[in-house]
Amino acid sequence: MVFLTSFLARRFPLPRAPDKQDNFWRKSMWLRISSKFYGRKRNCFGLAIVPGWRALRYSTRARKLKKENMKNLWEIRLNAACNEHSMEYHTFMTSLAQADIGLNRKVLTDLAIYEPRTFQSLVQFAKQRQLEVGLESSTIDSPHGIFHRGLPNKS
Amino acid sequence: MAHARVLQWATMARTWWVFDAYRQCPFKSSSKIAHYLIGKHKPIYDPLSDIGDHVVVINSKYISMPNDYWRVYKYFHHTGYPGGFSETAAWRLHEVDPTKVIEKAVYFYLPKNLLRRGRMRRLHIFPEEQVPTEILTNVSDQIQQVQPVPKRLDEYTQEEIESFPKLFDWPEDFILQSGFKKAESLMSESKKAEAGGKKTETGGKKAETIQSGGKKEAPKTGSKKTENPQTGSKKTENPQTGTKKAEPQTGTKKAEPQIEKADSKKTGKKH
C-alpha cells in the first residue's frame, strides 16, 4: 500500500501500539492481493490468505503459459493466413529465416490481419525462394495492384 | 473511408461452405468441418470470439465408416434412473436419421464451451444432394473431401478389369469361389451336366470338395450331377422318386436369388 503523500498516509487508521503495526501491514498486503476475489475472501484475512497464496502460484505459472498460449495463437493465425495463399506454415517460416528476414510471429500475424497485401508479398517471396532452392514446386501469383521490379536477392 | 469500412465488413462476414460427404469418413470430415465452424481458417481467429463460418454438408446418407464401425460403434444414453442405460449402434442411428452420425461427430469434436451450440446452429446437414435454394445461393466455396471416393468393382468396365496389371495367373486349384461367382459357376456346371453326360462328373466332385462345410445347396447340386451321367438324360429318367427329382432344381433356383441378395446386402453395408 503506497501513500504518495503524507496527507493520505495520515488518513489511514493505524493501530496505536507500534508492535502491532507490523502485523497490520502484513495483513493489508494479503488483502491487497485478494482485493478482486469473490465473497468474504476479499475482506476477511483468515479466508483471504490461502486463495492469496494460490493466486501467487497461478501467476508464477501463468508467466510462462502466457508466452506459450500466445505463440500457439499466432501459429494458428499464421497457418490460416498461409493457407489462404496455398502455402505451408513451416515452409513459410523456414524460408523467411533462411533469408534473414527477422520478423517474428506476432509481427507477421499483425501484417496478415491489417496489411494482407504485405503478407502476400512475403508469401510470394517464400514461394520464389522455394523455387530457387528446388525443394518444393510452387506457383507464384503477384498481389493485385502492386508493381515491383523484381524480388530482392540475398547477397 | 467508406471503402475501408466495407472491406472490414468483408473480413468479419460469415461465408458459406459446402462439403460433399459422399463416401467420406464422418470422423475425419468432422475435424475438417469443425475447423471451418470454429473459424481457424481465418487470420483473425480468436478462441473466444465467434467468427466461424456456415458449412452445408450434402450426401450425409452416403457416408462410409472405417472397418466394421457401423456395427461396433455405439452411441450411449442414460436417463439417470436405474436401468435407464441404452446404447444404439451406428447403423441403427443412421437408419433412423441419416444426418445424425455426422452431426454427433462434429458436436463431439467442437471445443466444449458456450460457443458450441451456436457453432452447431451454423452446420446444415442434408441427406441427399437436394438443398433449399435460399441456402444454396449463399454458398461461395467448397471444402475439399478428406479421402478419395472409392470405386466399386461393378463400376469398372470390363476393359479396365482385363487391363489391370498382374504378375501371374493363379492355378485353378488355388481359386476359391464364393458368393455370386460360386452360384454362377455352379449354374454353368449344372448346365454342362445337363447338356452332356460324363465330362462333368469330375467337375461335380471338385465342386463338392471345395464346398465342404459350405451351404446346403452344394451336396444337392453335386448329387444331381452325379445322378445325371448315370441316367444319361436329364428329365425322362431318374433313379429316385419324382418328389426328390424336383428338389434339387427348386433348391438351386431358390438359392441363386438368396445369394444375390446376400451379396447386395454386404455391398450395401460397405458403402
TrEMBL record, chain A:
<dbReference type="GO" id="GO:0005840">
    <property type="term" value="C:ribosome"/>
</dbReference>
<protein>
    <recommendedName>
        <fullName>Large ribosomal subunit protein bL20m</fullName>
    </recommendedName>
</protein>
<keyword id="KW-0689">Ribosomal protein</keyword>
<dbReference type="Pfam" id="PF00453">
    <property type="entry name" value="Ribosomal_L20"/>
</dbReference>
<dbReference type="InterPro" id="IPR005813">
    <property type="entry name" value="Ribosomal_bL20"/>
</dbReference>
<dbReference type="InterPro" id="IPR035566">
    <property type="entry name" value="Ribosomal_protein_bL20_C"/>
</dbReference>
<dbReference type="GO" id="GO:1990904">
    <property type="term" value="C:ribonucleoprotein complex"/>
</dbReference>
<keyword id="KW-0687">Ribonucleoprotein</keyword>
<comment type="similarity">
    <text>Belongs to the bacterial ribosomal protein bL20 family.</text>
</comment>
From TrEMBL, chain B:
<dbReference type="GO" id="GO:1990904">
    <property type="term" value="C:ribonucleoprotein complex"/>
</dbReference>
<keyword id="KW-0687">Ribonucleoprotein</keyword>
<dbReference type="GO" id="GO:0005840">
    <property type="term" value="C:ribosome"/>
</dbReference>
<feature type="region of interest" description="Disordered">
    <location>
        <begin position="186"/>
        <end position="271"/>
    </location>
</feature>
<feature type="compositionally biased region" description="Basic and acidic residues">
    <location>
        <begin position="253"/>
        <end position="271"/>
    </location>
</feature>
<feature type="compositionally biased region" description="Basic and acidic residues">
    <location>
        <begin position="186"/>
        <end position="227"/>
    </location>
</feature>
<dbReference type="InterPro" id="IPR036899">
    <property type="entry name" value="Ribosomal_uL13_sf"/>
</dbReference>
<dbReference type="InterPro" id="IPR005822">
    <property type="entry name" value="Ribosomal_uL13"/>
</dbReference>
<dbReference type="Pfam" id="PF00572">
    <property type="entry name" value="Ribosomal_L13"/>
</dbReference>
<feature type="compositionally biased region" description="Polar residues">
    <location>
        <begin position="228"/>
        <end position="243"/>
    </location>
</feature>
<protein>
    <recommendedName>
        <fullName>Mitochondrial ribosomal protein L13</fullName>
    </recommendedName>
</protein>
<keyword id="KW-0689">Ribosomal protein</keyword>
<dbReference type="InterPro" id="IPR005823">
    <property type="entry name" value="Ribosomal_uL13_bac-type"/>
</dbReference>
<comment type="similarity">
    <text>Belongs to the universal ribosomal protein uL13 family.</text>
</comment>
